[in-house]
Amino acid sequence: MPVIDARHLAGISETALLTLHQRATEAARPDGIIDDPIGIALHESLDYDYHHFGRLHQATALRALAFDNATRDYLDTHPRATVVALAEGLQTSFWRVDNDEISWLSVDLEPIVQLRRELLPTSDRLHYRAQSALVHSWMDDVDDTKGVLITAEGLFQYLDHDAVFDLIAACAKRFPGGQLIFDSIPRFLSSYSQRGIKLSEHYTSPPMPFWFTANRYKELCALSGVRSVRELGMPLGRGRVLRILTPLVYQTPFLEQLRAPTNLVEFD
């Protein structure tokens, strides 16, 4: 891959570099929890000082694995479905889950789409729509005749409540029988982010106003066209402590306020 300057990305678009850095660095470890050669190559092809993001962690790779697992589960029963990746950023999910039959629509802002077109492999089953996910015209490009799965990985926390619920309601109305996967953060982290989470002396993450935990499932199920909402299991990470703590946090009901769950929404 050629080396491309990515220093023009800012704000929420810059978080695409943060998540790429965390995931690709994890994948490059000999004991990495995720296999992502395309992500490693993409990471190396961008001119950007990743050290601005501070310490490394496994959380981003674990989230990617949770989305991959849920996507594969859907494709097991809908092998020729259309997957719509909203605000996909620099994710490389298509190449990790591709079954040689799916169609994939990547929706993101023009600077991100341009980088993806320049640096990532092409496929006649991979398409792009350069626009905000909140502008619903991307739905016109979706063929849902063989099933549709919508993913919103690392997106909703940067939106407000009404924007999230309006988008989910629109998806439910437009794609009956489809599914949507989104991750969320707990309330305490959302509140903390309003003051600015300083990851290093050079980088402060954008505010994350939207939070969502299991006690809000009824609120989401009240939307027309939403049949059910449930929390998906979290993959186990690397290291003894994490392997002990993850099941404890994600399987203990009274600890739900501490979780950053991945959620599956099913439409009528």
From TrEMBL:
Organism per entry: Mycolicibacterium komossense
GO biological process: methylation
InterPro entries according to UniProt: Ppm1/Ppm2/Tcmp, SAM-dependent_MTases_sf, TcmP-like
Keyword annotations: Methyltransferase, Transferase
Gene3D superfamilies: Vaccinia Virus protein VP39
Protein name: Class I SAM-dependent methyltransferase
Cross-referenced Pfam families: LCM
GO molecular function, one term: methyltransferase activity
